[in-house]
Amino acid sequence: MKRALPPYVYLKKGKLYFQRRGYDTVRLFEEYGSAEFDLELARAKSGRAKTPGSKRNFHILIESYRRSNRFKNLSDRSKADYVKILEFFRDRFGDLNPVKMQRKDIIRLRDSNAEKVRFANYCVQIIRILFEHAIDLGWRSDNPAKGVQLLKSQAKPREAWPAKLIEKFRETATGRELLLFELCVGTGQRIGDVLKMQWSDIEDGGIHVQQNKTGQKLWLPFTPQLEALLAKTPKSSLFLLSNLQGTGPWSYRGASHAVRQVRKEIGALDYDIHGLRHTATSELAAIGLSDELIMAITGHKSSAMISHYSGASRQKARALLAQQKRTGTEREC
Prior knowledge:
The strands form two sheets. A three-stranded antiparallel beta sheet has the order 1-2-3, with helices on one face. 26% of the residues are buried. The protein has 333 residues and is mainly α. 51% of the residues lie in helices and 7% in strands. The chain starts with 8 loop residues before the first strand and ends in a 6-residue tail after the last helix.
């Protein structure tokens, strides 16, 4: 077993350690052979896992959190997002003692990244969770990140695609770009879930989806446009949207770039690929469907998100009905 281990990695009493002259001995917690183990070993080799003079630092807190159920119960997508922030914390705070961090330090962390509002807010949210784990460990009795306000973004809020641009996209796009568009609008799912859809998921005029972010399982009936397009699409891969080699799903970067080219051509750069989920929700709300029915399609878990996405379309529908009642032009069903 020892000979099979990488250089400077030793097995002692069933536990793996990194030991090298000039470095602190570091316990390796991740499963041997996994990508997480390779990353952990790389940090140890680079010296970033040193813990001089302290048994409580961010290196140890982060590793402990990643072994906790708090982290393990996250979806794969959330884990990947969290790890990026956790590594940022490790680089910035690694050898510092979390016990000594105060509220003002969290605010300084937020404000030092204020030019990237989403990232700054995410840092606050993740470090808040990290300190909850510190409380679980008995390191702290309080959470200095609790109550720290998030920054307000000055960016223009994402809006649903206008009907004219939807038609322009359908008239202009072909191939994978058009199928991606119809899948997003027709199913109302997040782009990551759409790119993972497979032909074997199709059943009874719809498709089975398990949302990566929530883990929720849905069956979604096709719209007429989507059903007609799928009928004409050759099954050249396991995936509805495959890469050019047909060996796997179309990458997010490739899909986003291809859709952007069409958006640029039709003058729709203000409306991105993520806005198509907003569009689907708005279309469902505009025809008067309840939150419960809309959530059966989109998979949202709260009415609050439905209200956020459908507010404008519902207001327009109500305003039209109000004016029709006012002028006596309301049509009977």
